[in-house]
Amino acid sequence: MSNQRQASSASQVPHLSPAELSYLYTSLSLPKNPIRPDGRSPTQFRPLSAETTILPGTNGSARIGFADGTQAIVGVKAEVEKTVLAADTLDSRSLAQHGDALNREGEQGSAAVSGQGEWVQMSIEIPGFRDDDALPVFLSEMMRESLVGSVAGGNGDAVKEMAGGLKGRLVINKRWHWRLYIDVLLLSQPLAYPLPLLSLTTHLALLSTKLPKLKSTGEEDPFFDDDWAAAEYLYPRSNISKSLSAAPSYPVRPPVTLLVISVGDNVIFDPNREEIAVADAVLAISVTRSGDSETLKLLSIRSIDPPSRLTQPGIPNSENVNMLGATAAPGEETGGQEEVEGVWRPRRGGVKRSVIARMVKTVLGKGGVGEEVLEGLEGVEVQ
Amino acid sequence: MPLDTSTTYPLTRLRLDGRRWNELRLLQAQISTNPASSGSSYLSMGNTSIMCSVHGPAEGRRGDGGGGAAGSGHAVVEVDVNVAGFAGVDRKRRAGGSDRQSSRIATTLRSAFQSHLHTYLYPHSTISIHVSVLSADGSLLAAAINACTLALVDAGIPMPGLLCGCTSGMSGSASTPRDPRHDELDPLLDLSLPEEQELPSLTVATTTAVPVGENNMDDDEEAMKVCVLTMESKVHATYLETMLAVGIDGCSQIRELLEGVIKGSRG
């Protein structure tokens, strides 16, 4: 546990020798068709099982388990809270009182719609980590920012309801709002960087989240229907086809954060721990579906410090003291800086722009990985 | 808020959730829920649901200052209890790490299983148990004991018998001495959260006694041994015996259910 605590933003580095790292890197960076240790194709995800609405005591919940045994449970709880108006909002309102009525109308309209990002709270529990350790804090902030930042575009009734994104949906009226607590529990030791697992589980939990139906109107103190069957989904769904068998469609969906690595010229999705250990670059890409349009929208890209920087380099035979007698030209100095075929060097420096562009394109493109993941998640029945 | 049952219970003899005094809540359990651990279980008693996973016996951590016992000939049991933020009715924010309730449960579990398991079979090793409370509705400690037992059975760690926990409480005016004239006692089995908050209650866990010495010849399969007994509320001593008897009876009911779970999963 102590060496897990030391693990920074990158996940724990498996104990692989430089020779193993070099072998992995070579097979993953084979041009066109990389060979992954578990035989998956570059864009293939690990098989997973998912279920939603598993905890009756929460507003929404979901569980996802990968076949290797890593499991996550997410519970969403919502509380009504009094809105404390920020100083700048008060200023703008007092200014508006001096202005003409039309202007004031506009000001109030915007104040009623815009919510605050801090109304969404996220906490992640990973066994072996304190909840103020770097990894849980970094992960939760990374997932929260894309969640809060996504604002729906397009038109349609349901989209209007979500105007201002998740933040806007949490506004009840000018004085009251919902506060959303998203608690993520990772039930097993993180065998790989847990971001995709946690993100997909959070996505499903938010889709199944229901809020009680509001009975009061306008600026009254909020008063709710106590019939849970009448509760409304946090992410509204448009059930155009009335048949029960058809899956509901979601005009607005919570974002999904995918983990993508690049090895050489190859782009690899859903990497496991060994694959991350040799990655040139690790990116967390958040996407969502924007409004009615079929295209995906990029919300955020974050680069994650790849653990390959911390690995030990291999020593080429020409520099190895034990091999001095065997090599032909021991006197020739290599300087130890250039790449030698088959000898592991920790990755240094940045990543090429074209590689990042390709990673983003593979996620966003038509029929790309992002669409595939969202479609797969739609297949999960959300009651 | 006064408990509704305190007024209606003497009349209807039905508790808040419609149970009679000696009825358990619905107990559902499953083992081998998590393939990434040595043993794992899921257990729900009513609305209390708990997931438990066991890692080990494995080599203990080196350089651990408190690992004095790790050097001895016995395995060390580590317990980590995590009550999820969404477990209760209101979402609870814990200040950096663990709260009092979960650390108390962890301590009780650790001392119970440290002495219960055959730890001498695994010298210099650590058995770590991770308990996550997904939803809390009373009898947390008892449910955690049962979940841990199942996970340890799944992990194949030898123990003399199943350790089964249950709560029992006493309704009525339990702070005054018992009145011998109208000899009426109102014990309750397997308390839910509102009952637990309102009434004095105890948690008891039993296991089957190991046949030792002269008892070796006894074929008394019903022999029970109390392993864990905790009580956090006050009750007059005259009621204690009844509560204990009801709790032990509940434990043997739970034992049958858990045995069914273990045998059922083999098929």
From TrEMBL, chain B:
It comes from the Eukaryota. One of its GO terms (molecular function) is RNA binding. InterPro entries: ExoRNase_PH_dom1 (IPR001247), ExoRNase_PH_dom2_sf (IPR036345), PNPase/RNase_PH_dom_sf (IPR027408), Ribosomal_Su5_D2-typ_SF (IPR020568), RNase_PH (IPR050080). One of its GO terms (cellular component) is nuclear exosome (RNase complex). Residues 23-158 form the Exoribonuclease phosphorolytic domain. One of its GO terms (biological process) is rRNA catabolic process. Belongs to the RNase PH family. This is Exoribonuclease phosphorolytic domain-containing protein.
